[in-house]
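Handout, page 2. Input:
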Amino acid sequence: MSRPAGQAELVVADWMVTSLRLEHDGQQAPSLVEWRDPASARPTLANSILAGRGLDSIVTAAEWSEMQSWQSTTCEGAFLKDARNGELVKLMERVAPK
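Output:
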């Protein structure tokens, strides 16, 4: 059984999920510093929370399911499917509703 994620882990997981989604859609992802900076002109955690997304629900179940269906021929899909990234993917799963 996995232990509950701390707030810092959730922030990093949110940033990773958001970055993968943006990159997959052809948009430049924010750096982790930009993600945490509410004054940034880039997508931020604060803006996501204001839009109704929480630390533990940055993506919907449908969005996470779509991400898992990405082909491994894309950089983002390959990242999600590579067994070496298993722990990171598990962390990202914590911010996707079941």
